[in-house]
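Appendix B: complex inputs.
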Amino acid sequence: MRRAPQYLALAAYIAFLAFPLAWLLSTALKTPQEMAQTDPTWIPRAPTAANFADAFGEQDLVGAATRSLVVALMSSVVTVVIALPAAYAMARHRGLLNRVAIGWVLVSQVFPVILIIIPLFVILRDLELVNTLTGLVLVHVTFTLPFALWMLQGYVRAVPRELEEAAAVDGASRLRSIGAVVAPLLAPGVVATLLFAFISSWNEFLFALVVLRDPGVMTLPLTLARFVGPEGVARLGPLAAASLMATIPSLVFFAIIQRRLKSGLMAGAMKG
Amino acid sequence: MRMKSALAAAAVIALAAGCGSGGSGGGQAEPGEPVKLTFLSLAWQKESLAANKQLVEEWNKANAGIQVTYVQGSWDNVNDQLVTQFAGGTAPDVIHNDSPALSGFAADGYLLDLSGRLPADLKADIPRPAWDTVTFGDGKGGQGVYGVPFLQESQVVIANRKLLDASGVRLPTPDNPWTWDEFAEAARKMTKDGVFGVAWPMKSPVNKTLNLALNFGGTFFRTAGGRTTVKVGPEEKQVLQRIHDQLYKDRSADPAALGQGTADPLPAFYKGEFAMLPAGVYLRQQVAEQAPDGFEWVTLPPLKGTTTQQGAVSQTLSIARDSKHPDEAMKFIAFFLNGPNQARLAKGDWLLPTSVKAASDPAITTKENGWDVATASAKDLVVAPFLRVNGFDEWKSKVATPVLQEFYSNKISIDEAARRLVADGDKVLERYQR
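Resulting structure:
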């Protein structure tokens, strides 16, 4: 009984978090007439699948979601593969170079994207990577890498150096001590970084807008934007239906690794 | 273990599928190969999208040698997209946009001057005032035509039929429209029992105010000796004062709608909370789609001041200067925007075609959904005076929007509004004319 207020607070928080998704579902099932009423309802009076039919009929949502998934997975994996050894080096080898590198990582975060987008586009054009998913992955990795490096560095620092020293005393080489001792302890941090990189890439709009040109390579955020007209006027029904479907892959991804994420966040919070 | 499998699977999927490109090229066609054009379209309404795709399909079927790839863009960010693609030399061949955006791109040399390429029948089918909306300086002292104008918007009044009839006011027609005085009188008569006569959603007040100001000859800008300055005299003040009077003197305008966007008051309109909504002709689409069963509505013609003239901008099709196939792109545009096709596009977007032939098409002259009134209003459209003002966008966002919002909210007087529009506005424009 004494915990009732806690459960109440938890229920309120869950309701708060679920509200946008529930409202999205409700809107996706409403007719245009019902959406335009001044007294909105949670349960549609005359549920319709027309919004889903319009959304899927007009746009290649499945193809766009597949491409977004590919780009997000590839970006997150490549980001972590590059960031992990760099983070280890930065965390373990302190010195002037290390401080300069950390400083540079921080400075890179304050560049306004709009300033570099045209030079970046020209570089991609010269590499013949415009209008390719590879080009977009490259851009996403470039922009996610500094923060991923920063995150992972905190997790590496949280692993006591003494554990590696103990492994060395037992005769393990540096590579072996990293692989057998450090890597398992870093798993939660790697998962948290993967998720960060995945979500950043999954939601990214501006770079995709300028890098991709043909319908066959468009990602999901670009496809969703097509339901919005001038001055923010949107086709709410199809947009809600498409957005609902767009949340499913990321929900599945979270569901698969949410347990690891939880411990990853805790590890970062307590020791990082 | 499961995590390792997931990561491995991710890497394999990504490497296998991620490197593909859907690029359609668009470069020089090999002998025997069709020319490939990319068409960036901003159609977004269901019917408009269908009409655009259908026309491209028809073209591709009939022209095996010139194949067009339809690419759907978005109004909200098309100019960000184009700035980058122009700079990188990868812009689409045929570009859908609106005329205010063309001025800057033309001056920067990104768009092709179409004046020597326009087919005679296309040129003759679109009246001069519409061509004026796409004629800009080329940045080198010359003038050019940087797009083909095809859809325009006028401001009409959408009204609740029952409230209109109950008020007993004269029903205006395109030949005998309401004057602003009659409109004010009608709004007063319809204001009773908690119902307001009119709603003025003024979240974005600038374009609406400036376009309507032409009813009284208000241009807001004057150019003398090669310099453009802001002007707010008696002509410009007319519409401002009349809207303000409806809000605070007659109290015939619903104050709840004042801070809303154009389409936001529609639910209250269907509920009968106010009788009339001055709006662009395109808003009829939402009313037709959303209005509850039994709700009767009517489109009233543009209001008359000293004239019924309104400022207009156009939706346009342009050709990128870097296009490797400008002749083929022009042929496609000439097909896409011929009279019958413009009528289909106009119907899909609920806007007005610039084509004279299209304007007589039965599909857009029917009485249904007010098409007859909307299409007739095209004759009142003249090029919006602000279209060629360098620095207009900054004046609009930094000066005019906050000043007009404060004025319509009754926080400042009309004289104070005029003073700030001119003084602050001239400072902005001055920077663009150095």
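Chain B touches chain A through 55 residues (CB under 8 Å).
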